[in-house]
Write a sequence for this structure.
């Protein structure tokens, strides 16, 4: 049995200008141009679309699920987030350098 | 691609038990399994079998309805039927791809369908004899399939669940298109009403078998439920289908062609005499009325298209890869 | 030349001409869409099955739009026109009613046909009959994908293996005389061009030839020499394939043309 199904291309779909391209699925195709042609009807025949990408599946390098823990945060990383900070609603500086405030 | 067995060969019992524990704990937490994860061979093989049969059923399901595209009697029906059959081919494409993530190639799966090595749903082994069959298939068989697919979309295997989400979204129109056709026939001329009843009479038994053998005889169900491949048993799905559709059939003045069918008001359960499951077994093993015709149609499409696919492959070797569009350069 | 703003403003030979033109275009679209839909579920590649089915839907949808305009011009409703006429009352060219044959013929026919539609719609998009100009402008966007599709397929199959080249050349030899028949002039063509609605068929044919020749050359295919156009379709003389097609098309409709389906 010879395999005649072509290569696998991953398809990314942009719904409107300004949106990110989102991964929607794959197509089998013999070359990139045909992959685009095929992706248009398989993945954009209903939903609005302004732009499509196709990428050979073989070009994608991915992390291993077994290494999922590399994404864990072992220590408190709340300093990266806006909610990691407490700031007063109002601040009034006093003469001796002390400030009075209402906690947020 | 992880080949089947590779993950479980050479493991000691303790190692296997440990991996199985992690795997089952993930499923019990409601997390999805992804292609590269460790999984027991049984899980992989059951999924391959299930998704492969599902994909085959979509592509073979395109045939009975596809035959009626040339005969659709109005623009609306012709366009809708064409779009519906197109969706079925599209769903086969999505499902073969989901199955590929578990090992087998699409070429292999298509070959297995043609050689009779792999199965497809019992209902597509029957002929669509009249236009009313198209209405019946679109309403009741798609209705039965949606009961199954909505459940499976919550299953534990990521790629299958993703494909099913898209499929369920697309199929919403199939059901409405089918129901609309049945309403028009049921409220139409005497000839149309008779056509619809005749179609229902022929399709009822296959539809009652659609969700598979009853729980008493089904050999796969318990393992599939434990690993959240399936979330409901065959009988539970059948019951859900009956609850949803039988009252509507009665409203349309359709005589449900099963004398044993009655509602137990206390438990809100439809009671019926179990179908003859030996018939089901024979049919899905390509012993149905048009099994040979279906497989032959797929063989012809595959073989007649071979020169096309080979020519495209040869052409791809000789062509420079085109520049990507300016937007991603 | 003054623009004709509405269907009601059409009259005399111009109106007759527009009706004739719309029947020709509607019937062409309906029949080629019908033939193409026969591939749904049977195409050589799953992905192409989907793409080609969309194109069939586009064509049938275009036919419906033309029939709706005919209805506004006083003809019967779209379904009656599409499903309820006798064979000799259809105005399609023979090209579109031929059997679907193999994939090479399908691709070649579709490419030649789409190029003709592209040429005609481009002319109509600027025509003096405003409702038709607007419709043509709208339909052209779908034609663009059809042209991309046709070109990609022609270039690959024409030049790939010996087998594919031979099949494509044979398909072109068969289809080309029929494709020329798309430009069969009718008695209405002169009033149409005088009213600034549709250029003479000969002009459209020349534009079409200039459009298809470079692609055929790039695909390594040779246009058959001195072929005689197959005429007759525009005046209701059809090959037996059309009768066969209509038997299928009208099968359910004819059970009861007065019924709702």
């Amino acid at each position: 049995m010879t395999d005649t199904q072509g290569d696998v291309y991953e398809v990314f779909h942009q719904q409107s200008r300004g949106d990110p391209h989102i991964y929607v699925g794959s197509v089998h195709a013999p070359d990139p141009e045909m992959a685009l042609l095929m992706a248009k009807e398989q993945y954009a025949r209903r939903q609005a679309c302004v732009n499509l990408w196709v990428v050979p599946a073989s070009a994608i390098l991915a992390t291993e699920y077994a290494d999922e823990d590399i994404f864990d945060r072992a220590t408190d990383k709340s300093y990266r987030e806006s909610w990691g900070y407490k700031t007063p609603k109002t601040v009034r500086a006093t003469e001796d350098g002390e400030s009075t405030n209402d906690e947020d | 691609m992880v080949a089947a067995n590779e993950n479980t060969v050479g493991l000691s019992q303790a190692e296997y038990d440990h991996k199985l524990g992690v795997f089952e704990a993930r499923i019990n937490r409601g997390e999805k399994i992804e292609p590269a994860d460790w999984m027991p061979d049984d899980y992989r093989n059951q999924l391959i079998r299930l998704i492969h049969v599902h994909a085959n059923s979509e592509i073979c399901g395109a045939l009975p309805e596809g035959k009626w595209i040339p005969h659709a009697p109005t623009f609306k029906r012709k366009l809708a039927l064409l779009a519906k059959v197109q969706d079925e081919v599209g769903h086969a494409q999505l499902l073969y791809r989901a199955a590929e993530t578990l090992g087998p190639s699409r070429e292999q799966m298509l070959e297995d369908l043609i050689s009779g090595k792999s199965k497809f749903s019992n209902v597509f082994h029957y002929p669509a004899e009249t236009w009313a069959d198209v209405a019946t298939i679109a309403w009741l068989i798609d209705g039965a399939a949606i009961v199954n697919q909505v459940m499976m979309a919550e299953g534990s295997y990521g790629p299958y669940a993703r494909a099913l989400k898209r499929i369920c979204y697309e199929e919403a129109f199939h059901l409405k298109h089918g129901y609309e056709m049945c309403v028009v026939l049921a409220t139409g001329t005497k000839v149309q009403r008779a056509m619809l009843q005749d179609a229902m009479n022929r399709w009822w038994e296959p539809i009652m078998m659609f969700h598979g053998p009853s729980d008493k005889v089904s050999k796969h169900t318990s393992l599939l439920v434990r690993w959240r491949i399936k979330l409901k048993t065959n009988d539970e799905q059948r019951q859900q289908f009956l609850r949803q559709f039988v009252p509507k059939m009665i409203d349309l003045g359709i005589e449900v062609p099963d004398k044993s069918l009655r509602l137990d008001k206390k438990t809100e359960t439809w009671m019926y005499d179990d179908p003859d499951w030996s018939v089901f077994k024979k049919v899905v093993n390509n012993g149905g009325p048009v099994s040979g015709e279906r497989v032959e149609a797929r063989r012809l499409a595959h073989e007649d298209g071979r020169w096309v696919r080979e020519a495209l492959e040869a052409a791809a070797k000789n062509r420079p890869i085109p520049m990507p569009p300016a937007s991603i350069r | 030349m003054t623009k004709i703003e509405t269907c009601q403003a059409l009259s005399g030979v111009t109106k007759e001409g527009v009706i004739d033109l719309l029947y020709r275009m509607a019937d062409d679209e309906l029949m080629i869409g019908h033939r193409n839909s026969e591939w749904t579920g049977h195409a050589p590649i799953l992905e192409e099955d989907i793409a080609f089915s969309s194109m069939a839907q586009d064509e049938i949808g275009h036919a419906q739009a033309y029939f709706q305009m005919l209805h506004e011009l006083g003809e019967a409703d779209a379904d009656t026109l599409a499903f309820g006429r006798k064979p000799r009352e259809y105005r399609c060219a023979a090209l579109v009613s031929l059997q679907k044959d193999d994939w090479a013929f399908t691709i070649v026919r579709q490419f030649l046909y789409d190029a003709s539609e592209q040429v005609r719609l481009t002319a109509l998009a600027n025509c003096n009959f405003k409702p038709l100009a607007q419709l043509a402008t709208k339909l052209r966007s779908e034609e663009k994908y059809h042209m991309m599709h046709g070109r990609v397929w022609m270039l690959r199959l024409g030049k790939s293996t010996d087998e594919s080249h031979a099949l494509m050349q044979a398909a072109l030899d068969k289809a080309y005389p029929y494709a020329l028949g798309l430009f069969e002039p009718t008695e209405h063509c002169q009033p149409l061009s005088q009213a600034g609605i549709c250029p003479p068929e000969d002009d459209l044919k020349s534009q079409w030839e200039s459009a298809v020749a470079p692609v055929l050359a790039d695909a390594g295919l040779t246009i058959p020499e001195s072929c005689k156009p197959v005429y007759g379709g525009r005046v209701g003389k059809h090959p037996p394939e059309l009768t066969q097609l209509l038997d299928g098309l009208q099968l359910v409709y004819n059970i009861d043309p007065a019924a709702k389906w």
Observations:
- Chain B is about 65% helix and 0% strand.
